[in-house]
Each structure stands twice: as structure tokens, then as C-alpha cells.
């Protein structure tokens, strides 16, 4: 693993994409059987092995693959499983080279399909599976820190932590080389159209290339 990858693991705040930059989502189907449930770091390593420029571009976000949890540390892939890479339009030709590639993610092997490109769509509410902000591992201080980041980005919105069925904050973890990082599933509401697009472009917190701070419209 390169020094740049190590630096990515320790990033606490995003390097913000200029608001004027056109940003799109590149979605690649994933064909295989299983993946580790926590595969953000291993996925980044596998993708960078195929496209080394990924770890040098601070404006890229990578959303990990969804599947069916087996409650034993793995997810079962489905016909709808995919990797979503959020990137400036100018970086699409380089990352498009991932089409058809085989990846080894930990001890699991998958094959990528042909990508589809989607533009970002505004939504009054956005959510992220996990947001990590260095030093904030309890819900209330985390919400305030995330709200402060929004204000620095000049984005008007209200941050909250999503809850499970019992009403407890949805606390998530990410393992990076034996170190566990704590984050929370996060909702941002009351967004204006331009602010919604900007938040999707730049995210909140760090480790966006490992699946963190990656916002999608609420369904």
C-alpha cells in the first residue's frame, strides 16, 4: 500500500471539489458471490491496483457495495450489487478502464461490469450510510461537528443521526489496517437544490474513498 493510501486513511476532512466542477456517478455492476461486510479499505486498494490515479485524486468518492448480510461478517452479492464512484467528469475516461476488470478484495474475487454514468440529482433530504469525523464518536458532539462543517461549506441544512428500530443512534464502524474508526449513519434535511448538489459533490467528514461521507437522495 502506498504512502498516499495511508494518508487517505488518516484524513479527517474532505478536500472539497470546486462547486463549478461537473461531478457524476459512475456505477459498475459487481458480479461474484460474497464480500466482507466491511470492505471499504480493501476495495480502495483493489481499485487503485487497477487504476493507480484513483489514490492521487482527492476529489473522488467511492461507495461500497451493498448486499445481503449473513451476520458472520460477509455480504451476499445480488444481481443489483454495484460500486458507485463519484468523480469529476474529467476523470471518467481513466476510471472507465475498470470495466470488465477482476478485483481481489481481501480473499474474495469479483468481476466488474460495464459502467453507467448518472448525473447528480437534487433532493431536499440526503443520507449517508456512514460519516466519520475525527475525534467525534458520540452522537450529540458528532451532530454539532457535522453541522459546523455544513456552515463552513455555506450549505443550509439540518443534520441528524439516523436511528435503528429501537431508537438508538445508528453507529457504524470502519476497520483500516487493524484500527477501528467510528461513524454514524447521517441525514441532512431541508436542503435547497444547489446546496443538495454541493453536499453530494463534497460530502462530510473524511475517508470518502472508503465509503464514508457519501450522500444519496432519500427514497
Question: How would you characterize this protein structure?
Answer:
The chain has 219 residues and is an alpha+beta fold. Helices cover 21% and strands 32% of the residues. It is built from five helices and 14 strands. Strands 1, 3, 6, 7, 8 and 9 form a six-stranded antiparallel β-sheet that branches. A hairpin with a 2-residue loop joins strand 7 (102-105) and strand 8 (108-112). It is globular, with a radius of gyration of 16 Å. The N and C termini lie far apart (37 Å).
Q: What tags apply to this protein structure?
A:
alpha+beta, six-stranded antiparallel sheet, five-stranded antiparallel sheet, disordered N terminus, about 220 residues, 5 helices
Between the first and last Cα atoms, what is the distance in angstroms?
37 Å
User: Uncertain segments of ≥5 residues (pLDDT<50)?
Assistant: 1-15
Average the pLDDT over all residues and give the rounded result: 89
* Structural class designation: alpha+beta
Tally of separate helices: 5
Instruction: Characterize the overall form.
Output: globular
Q: Taking Cα atoms only, what radius of gyration do you get, to the nearest Å?
A: 16 Å
Q: Could you give the count of β-strands?
A: 14
Concise structural overview:
The protein has helices at residues 3-10, 40-50, 92-95, 139-152, 193-202, and strands at residues 23-31, 34-36, 61-63, 68-69, 74-76, 82-88, 102-105, 108-112, 116-119, 126-131, 158-161, 171-176, 179-189, 215-217. By secondary structure, the protein is an alpha+beta fold.
